[in-house]
Please model this.
Amino acid sequence: MANTLTALSFNNSYDIAIIGAGPAGMSAAITASAAGARVVVLDDKPRSGGQIYRNVDASPLVKPAVLGDDYLKGSQITAAFKRSEAEHIRGVNVWHVGDNGEVLFSLEGETQRLTARQVIVATGAMERPFPIPGWHLPGVMSAGSAQVMLKSDGIVRDGAVFAGTGPLLYLIVAQYLRLGVKVKALVDTTPKKNYVRSMSEVTGALSAPAMLIKGLGLMNEIRKSGTKVYRFADSLKVMGDDAAAGVSFCVSGTSHEIVCDHVFLHQGVIPNLNMTRALGLQHHWCVQQLCWKPTTNNWGQSSQGFVSVAGDSSGIVGAESAAAMGRVCALGQLVNIGLMSEPQAVTEAANDQKFMARQQHFRRFIDCLYQPIDQHRKPVDDNTIVCRCEERTVKDLKQGFAQGGREPNQLKSQTRCGMGPCQGRMCGHTVSELLADWRNEPVDDVGYYRLRTPMRLVTLQELSRFTDVKPTVTPTAVNSEELDSCEKGSSLQEKAQ
Model:
């Protein structure tokens, strides 16, 4: 069971440490600090907002409205976050969270430490790996990276090809077109069968008509622009030897090639697992979203009672549901630390939990429609790079498997696949699925890499410069009997089990 902080350390500890300042992290901070909790938010970006609301308060674009109404909504939550009593430490890299509530992070070349009674992981999502031939070449990036460049610095790439599937792909193409940037082609890899399969979830689509209309509007906007769109594409490859020179693909058995210098790939997003894995939280394979997820209860609490996981870190839910989930996680933790009664938390969480349940109906439709095809998740070409950091190919992994690497950590030892700076972020899911196929077993039985801290690269110089961070707000008095009886995460965690 999780350790309880001593009375002495409690006086110098935060009540709740939140890692990530996207919709989930900001909402959790607003809710918890309003209830009197001492909250600190740690984020690796210079401004709050996460990826979805990146730079919403300081856009480099003359007319940020071209990014859409959903983006502009972010200014409301960032403003509320700034008004809250939560401390915001920005530009940091969190690389360790201990089971005693210790959080270590790097800031401006030195290591800093704080302690917290509860922790909320709200590190968001990452784009699903797209391991096709040539995806590692210069000139190839993810569609999310294209959006980061646009939101952060107003940088675009004229004449690029966007390829893959999923709502974000169509959104970034539409944003490019609104700015007058020429898109050479959109290569849509959504297969015909997905449109048929998704009809089983049509009631979910109709449960959120505004979102359905929004998606159809993006497709219509792209069509009206005159941009060349190829639908039902498969066998996607990036052409080129030393850099991207174009893309090739098939549509209904007919081969196509498009010459270009820049290719943006996207086939959905998955939870960013490095922190939850390094914390040793329980995870499970989600068949609906084809990804690993931390196992949580309906309050977002994980297998370690003092850790909750909010937003897309727990499974892809979208910005509005992420904000709702952040509030629910905060309410659960307020109960655990004694700042709110359980009946009050249940009452205050009711609307958010109902909203998330409704959104999940629509999410099932989206996940079914935009499920990426097998050949773009599990490469069959022996020369395709799987681990970009160590440049390990499918052939290398097959050899490691033949030599006894039958689970991810064994395969890592045999091939170095997953040993690079990204710690398996870009190959972990691919390795799990490939091994499941080779073993003819469920992905859940195969598992994932075993990750340990530090979660980021840390220099000896950083470790030699060490600072303790303490709350700036005087802690509320708590007697030692209450503290000793308040094991982290016990109340709502035990009820959920």
User: Anything to note?
Assistant: The first strand starts at residue 14 and ends at 19.
